[in-house]
Amino acid sequence: MATPPTPAAPAGEAVAATPLSKSRRNLVLAICCSSLFIVGLDTTILNVGLPSLKDDLNAPDSGLQWTIDAYGLVIASLLLFSGSMGDRLGRKRVFRTGLTLFSAGSLLCSLAPSLGWLIAFRMIQAVGGSMLNPVAMAIITNTFTGRRERARAIGVWGGVIGLSMALGPVLGGLLVDGVGWRAIFWINVPVGLAAMVLTTRYVPESKAPRARRFDPLGQVLVAGTLGTLTYAIIEAPANGWAATQTIVLFAVAAAALVGLIVCESRRDDALLDVRFFRSAPFAGATAIAVCAFAVMGGFLFLNTLYLQNVRGYSALHAGLLTLPMAGVTAICAPISGRLVGSYGPRPPLIIAGTALPASAVVLSFMTPHTSLAMLVCAYVLFGLGFGMVNAPITNTAVSGMPVTQAGVAAAVASTSRQVGMALGVAIFGSVAASQVAGQAGQAAIDPTSAVAWWIMVGCGAAIGVLGVVTTGRWARGTAASTAALFVTEQPPTTEQPRTIAQPLTTAQPRPAQPDAAVPAVPAVRSSG
């Protein structure tokens, strides 16, 4: 039965959701996770269809990179804005709008007559996708108010991210071989429509007590930084890494980044509040997400080209070969969530920081005749590492921060994932391409390039190091002092427990594991 409409909140207060039963809360979680699943799935499912798409649309290798990165870049550029709009206009409203655009964009992608149109329709898809992840996270934090219950819900959320991205190649292989690459986009339409109906009926509306103002300059600088940087990397193998165009693009990206930091640090209602990064756990979670998803993006892109172009496997066989990775990720994702809820983020991050570089080391020795046993071993290690890394990213990013700006705070974590995915495809693809560039203006990607895989080793190792450094006592102290900056700015509220103004706390680690603790908001009473 639908919840009665929530009365309008007085000015300056959050819109409160009616207290929900446990089954209703779990249904809201399932609806939010369904949106996350199709967005995450769409990030990776297209990889396995790239060789088929290349033949059908006569696309160059750099065009394949843009097919993936156009989606990731638009999402990364708009996530912060969409989270803020959810806080201001209502999360349910923005969430439904995102589902509509994402479903429509998916349908258009399946009808694209050329590579250019496909990239354009992928961008429409991404505009809708940017409205789903951060807004859904804000809905979850508003729905699950219990300390341990919220930690487990966030663990499920993080697990779904990893599961959807790992299952992409398998489902993509089935669809490409059975129907064609266009069928990859059809799967989003019925799921999106069902989620729209369920959202309308069961998800309560909520807003932040004080939403941020629109920041047009910050938005332009974010898009400019990511767009020029990615364009420079993708086109560098063909243009030359020392070419004037490449150097100018890198300089523009650097200038845009500096301008973003300067402008946002001086603005009261910044699109990206740089004070968040004074918290070591928050900054660490952002860096870990970029590293982990760069590895994931590069792995899926290069591995697909290796299995189909170098080994000659069909899309279905290539997808099935990655099934061990997907299976291990599916098993490890909920385990990681439980580990975070009980012991904090450090243990799963250490596991991820060990397994991911180990997998990349194995793949660095890959040749056209590498044994399947060796490949499967590498895929299992990759699945273990990636399955462990998602839950602690989400948990650490939002822990210790006030939730009055939940949409924006969650969007930073989601943005870092998309930035990592886009940069992974761009960097690892371009590094592999530069190894076999035959002549000026042309470059082909060699997925067996050891240089690309060793860069992944470095990214994986960084996850483990950051996991240790940003989860200790010093890091908790920085989180406490950072959270205090925001607590002092929050207006008093007399809302009941189930409002978005409630402070966010996550499951506290057991006392025997002090270094793994996840801080709660200072000056707020916690039951931990």
Overall description:
It is a single chain. The chain is mainly alpha-helical. Residues 1-17, 435-441 and 491-528 have low confidence and may be disordered. α3 (61-89) runs antiparallel to α4, α4 (91-110) packs antiparallel against α9 (188-202) and α6 (133-143) runs antiparallel to α7 (147-178). The chain is globular and about 55 Å long. It has one domain (22-488, 499-516): MFS general substrate transporter like domains (Growth Hormone, Chain: A), CATH 1.20.1250. The chain has 19 helices and no strands. The two termini are 35 Å apart.
What's the total number of strands? 0
Instruction: Determine the CATH topology.
Output: Growth Hormone, Chain: A
Q: What's the end-to-end separation, in Å? A: 35 Å
* Overall geometric form: globular
Element order: H for helix, E for strand: HHHHHHHHHHHHHHHHHHH
List the helices and strands and how they pair.
Blueprint: H1 22-44, H2 50-57, H3 61-89, H4 91-110, H5 115-130, H6 133-143, H7 147-178, H8 183-186, H9 188-202, H10 216-239, H11 244-266, H12 280-310, H13 315-321, H14 323-343, H15 346-363, H16 372-398, H17 406-434, H18 450-469, H19 473-487
In short:
This protein has a single domain (22-488, 499-516), classed as MFS general substrate transporter like domains (Growth Hormone, Chain: A), CATH 1.20.1250.20. The protein has 19 helices and no strands.
Summarize this structure as a short list of keywords or feature phrases:
528 residues; mainly alpha; Growth Hormone, Chain: A; 19 helices; 71% helix; disordered N terminus; disordered C terminus
